[in-house]
């Protein structure tokens, strides 16, 4: 399986890795599936290659014909072969990106865009002082937040094998190997690939929330616990060198989680699940500290015959009981042993260790992470005082930072629920308390009675009342939250998010419910232990966000709640539902407008704003390069405060590899730094004109999108038959149902399967539809003058540039010829041709518009790295699409064997891997 030859010299190492993996995979297939199957895969790959390169105009038809007659066993083998190469290609590309970054640093070249060093250099060149950066970071919060939203189809077992392949490839790259070592390495790769081939790729069981908790925790264990402390310390050292003084930064960057706390549409998230999530996270943090202490004991072998120690260190050493006689001359080891014993006692007390560690003598547990930090500082201070500062600056310093960042809870967990659920709970509580019939009250009356409850010490809940099962379940969540904060501190559950928030009363309902469990308190004054956050998702909600927040800030009780939360109010913006509502361009513009409005509202109210961006992996759900996305935010909307969701397969792509994970964390920090100190643009008279133009384009794009998706008769039929939407729920990729309700409505379908399905059939419709019509209609009116203006906006306005660049990327991954094959799956071919014809025409209009505005002769004209990546992957990706079409035909015609269903799921897996940001 030779790779393409269109690779420049700097990419020769990637070519080498791809050829090695392809060779080993081909050998595995020959051995396991037979020579005939291996040769058939190569023949199909060559057809796909000629199809991609355009050298054979009939290649697509020939490819489809050759795949239609395959027997089930051969079909499965082919699907697995092409799917595995997509996975292996991703591994090799990630390794190559690391390789290129390392080479760049070794060469002493200028820091790369998106790095912290480049951001600091850029800011200092513009006159921003180091102390200004330090001050800004002191009041900042930057947080990627892992969610359980399901588009990651790979099992953890498969991900672990992928990690093993990456480590073996990196081993070949890091140092010169002897011939014997190369053979051993190659044999190890062969073993991993053979094990992969003999492992089932798709889960045979439905994921539970507990499984998702374990999967999410793995990224902390493998990446964040190691890399985040290093990142903090490196940044402190860079800033210290600039201002020539010691720098100690607060914990401004955190990694959060929704896993185990997000119950919007997920009936399996309960109070006990929330308790488990926090307990499991705590166990991972304490286990890490314990293991690091064991390593520190080995390193800190200083003897009192040679060195002196502080009295505080000696007292800590004297408190140790484990192996005291053997280490009597080694006080640092004894001190660390005492710390380790207390960590173990803490874990036992909290009940967070899920495996038996080496037992140590009884010791008092730590009441909080600060007590542990105090002991570690005793050790560090003694080392620094007695000529061992360089030792204190190694593992011990990293451990101190890890404890400071992750404490005893590892990651803050967000809670989330739909506003409609809160209304039902409040209604039932009111009913049993003999109060107003809440559901019949208008908005003004609701606010009045809710504010009354926020001022009353009388409880609404009663232990003597039997509530409905749904309400009991909700009430247990609030009780669990109160218990968890009491045990671990407020930092463990800092946020409560309200989905579909469309009124002030939606916010007040949650405050009342929190008051019932003591998370909102009346004495000595109204205060809250948790941030209550509105999520504005749909286009109508985004348009009314400013008014809702204005009315909320006018309420004295709410201002009091914010006063105890540092005068900060967080607002979450949803990218998925707004896109499903109105299409790509309108969604992006409405989000931008909402941010502009909120900046003004918060400034008038004198509160700090933190925006939480609910971005998905794919462009249709707000995806795209994070650095560009943050820089494209309106002025005043960042100011050191930003949270961003990381979802599905994007979590794996960004954080499975430590070096890649470090790079992605750097990107968030660098972009936030740059966005928080925006360049002062010269006064411009065209801002209003620019916004009026975007409003006009958005309205036209919105009408085109709505006309297709919501106003076209039987469009839902086309969608369900021309994509694998009906097969996706059986993939076992998440614990949450695919739809909020059991209806045939697009409105009730979750945005993730909506986008994921369009990706599978290579149309990517949510990422571009409507834009082509908007631009063509505008150019009919404005002509060449209008095109010049659009080109200028693309060049000078980060928002417009990012919007077009992301569309460019998603269009490059689309394939209208392959999409046409999926339209053949629609039973009513007259309907299929009518709808697909409209989609195809809009697809071409959009490509023409993007190329005209960007002035590139082809898609990805300014992104050669992605263009190369796609060129390498498409010969393996395209056959999977053709195979999926054939398999769907068989499945839907009645051939419902386990083998065919399994093969369909394998194609979904492989296509998602080949596209990467697919859902």
UniProtKB/TrEMBL annotation:
InterPro entries: PEP_COase, PEP_COase_bac/pln-type, PEP_COase_Lys_AS, PEPCASE_His_AS, Pyrv/PenolPyrv_kinase-like_dom. It comes from the Bacteria. The keyword Lyase applies. Its cofactor is Mg(2+). GO terms for molecular function: phosphoenolpyruvate carboxylase activity. Keywords: Carbon dioxide fixation, Lyase, Magnesium. It catalyses: oxaloacetate + phosphate = phosphoenolpyruvate + hydrogencarbonate. Its EC number is 4.1.1.31. The active site is at residues 149, 580. Homotetramer. Forms oxaloacetate, a four-carbon dicarboxylic acid source for the tricarboxylic acid cycle. Belongs to the PEPCase type 1 family. This is Phosphoenolpyruvate carboxylase. It comes from Iodobacter arcticus.
């Amino acid at each position: 399986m030779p790779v393409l030859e269109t690779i420049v010299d700097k990419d020769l190492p990637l070519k080498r890795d791809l050829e090695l993996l392809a060779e080993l995979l081909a050998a595995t297939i020959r051995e396991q599936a037979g020579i005939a199957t291996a040769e058939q895969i190569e023949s199909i790959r060559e057809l796909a290659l000629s199809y991609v390169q355009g050298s054979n105009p009939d290649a697509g038809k020939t490819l489809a014909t050759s795949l239609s007659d395959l027997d089930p066993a051969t079909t499965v083998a082919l699907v697995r072969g092409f799917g595995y190469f997509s996975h292996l290609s991703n591994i090799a590309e990630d390794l190559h990106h690391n390789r290129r970054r390392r080479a760049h640093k070794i060469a002493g070249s200028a820091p790369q865009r998106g790095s912290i060093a480049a951001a600091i250099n850029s800011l200092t060149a513009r006159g921003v002082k180091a102390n200004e950066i330090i001050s800004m970071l002191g009041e900042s919060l930057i947080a990627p937040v892992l969610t359980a939203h399901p588009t990651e189809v790979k099992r953890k077992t498969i991900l672990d094998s992928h990690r093993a392949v990456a480590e073996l490839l990196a081993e070949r790259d890091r140092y010169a190997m002897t011939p014997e070592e190369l053979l051993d390495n190659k044999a190890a790769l062969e073993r991993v690939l053979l094990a992969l081939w003999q492992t089932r790729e798709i889960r045979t069981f439905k994921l539970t929330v507990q499984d998702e908790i374990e999967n999410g925790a793995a990224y902390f264990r493998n990446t964040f616990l190691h890399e985040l402390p290093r990142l903090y310390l490196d940044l402190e050292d860079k800033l210290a060198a600039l201002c020539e003084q010691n720098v100690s930064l607060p914990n401004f960057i955190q990694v959060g989680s929704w896993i185990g706390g997000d119950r919007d549409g997920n009936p399996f998230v309960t109070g006990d699940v929330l308790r488990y999530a926090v307990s499991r996270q705590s166990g991972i943090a304490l286990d890490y500290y314990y293991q690091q202490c064991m390593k520190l004991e080995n390193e800190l072998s200083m003897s009192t015959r040679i060195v002196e120690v502080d009295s505080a260190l000696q007292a800590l050493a004297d408190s140790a009981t484990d192996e005291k006689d053997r280490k009597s001359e080694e006080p640092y080891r004894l001190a660390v042993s005492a710390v380790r014993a207390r960590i173990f006692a803490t874990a036992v007390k909290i009940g967070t260790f899920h495996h038996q560690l080496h037992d140590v003598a009884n010791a008092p547990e730590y009441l909080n992470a600060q007590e542990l930090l105090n002991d570690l500082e005793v050790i560090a201070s003694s080392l620094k005082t007695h000529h061992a500062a360089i030792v204190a600056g190694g593992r011990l310093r990293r451990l101190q930072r890890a404890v400071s960042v992750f404490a005893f809870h590892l990651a803050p967990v967000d809670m989330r629920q739909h506003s409609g659920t809160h209304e039902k709970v409040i209604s039932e509580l009111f009913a049993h308390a003999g109060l107003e019939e809440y559901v019949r009250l208008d908005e003004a009356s609701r606010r009045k009675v809710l504010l009354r409850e926020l001022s009353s010490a009388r409880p609404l809940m009663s232990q003597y009342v039997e509530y409905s099962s749904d309400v009991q379940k909700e009430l247990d969540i609030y009780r669990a939250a109160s218990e968890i904060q009491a045990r671990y501190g407020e930092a463990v559950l800092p946020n409560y998010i309200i989905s579909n928030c469309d009124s002030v009363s939606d916010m007040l309902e949650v405050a009342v419910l929190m008051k019932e469990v003591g998370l909102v308190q009346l004495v000595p004054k109204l205060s809250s232990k948790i941030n209550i956050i509105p999520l504005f998702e749909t286009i109508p909600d985004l348009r009314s966000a400013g008014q809702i927040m204005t009315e909320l800030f006018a309420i004295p009780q709410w201002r009091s709640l914010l006063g105890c939360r540092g005068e900060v109010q967080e607002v979450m913006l949803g990218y998925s539902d707004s896109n499903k509502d109105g299409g790509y361009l309108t969604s992006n513009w409405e989000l931008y407008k909402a941010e502009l409005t909120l900046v003004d509202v918060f400034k008038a109210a004198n509160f700090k704003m933190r925006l939480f961006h609910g971005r998905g992996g794919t462009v249709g759900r707000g995806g795209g390069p994070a650095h560009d996305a943050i820089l494209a935010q309106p002025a005043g909307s960042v100011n050191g405060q930003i949270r961003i969701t990381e979802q599905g397969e994007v979590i794996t792509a960004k954080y499975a590899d430590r070096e890649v994970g470090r790079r992605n964390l750097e990107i968030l920090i660098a972009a936030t730094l740059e966005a928080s100190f925006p360049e002062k643009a010269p006064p411009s008279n065209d801002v209003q004109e620019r916004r009026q133009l975007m409003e006009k384009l958005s309205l036209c794009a919105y009408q085109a999108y709505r006309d297709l998706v919501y106003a076209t008769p039987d469009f839902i039929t086309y969608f369900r038959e021309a994509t694998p939407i009906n097969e996706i729920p059986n993939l076992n990729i998440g614990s949450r149902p695919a739809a909020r309700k059991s209806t045939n409505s697009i409105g009730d379908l979750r945005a993730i399967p909506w986008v994921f399905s369009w990706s599978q059939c290579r149309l990517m419709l949510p990422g571009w539809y409507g834009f082509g019509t908007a631009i063509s209609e505008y150019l009919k009116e404005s002509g060449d003058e209008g095109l010049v203006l659009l080109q200028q906006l693309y060049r000078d306005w980060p928002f417009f540039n990012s919007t077009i660049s992301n569309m460019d990327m998603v269009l490059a991954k689309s394939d209208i010829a392959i999409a046409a094959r999926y339209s053949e799956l629609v039973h009513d071919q007259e309907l299929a041709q009518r709808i697909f014809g409209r989609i195809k025409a809009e697809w071409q209009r959009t490509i023409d518009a993007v190329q005209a505005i960007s002035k590139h002769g082809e898609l990805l004209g300014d992104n050669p790295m992605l263009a190369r990546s796609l060129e390498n992957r498409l010969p393996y990706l395209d056959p999977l699409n053709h195979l999926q079409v054939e398999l769907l035909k068989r499945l839907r015609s009645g051939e419902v064997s386990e083998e065919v269903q399994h093969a369909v799921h394998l194609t979904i897996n492989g296509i998602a891997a080949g596209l990467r940001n697919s859902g």
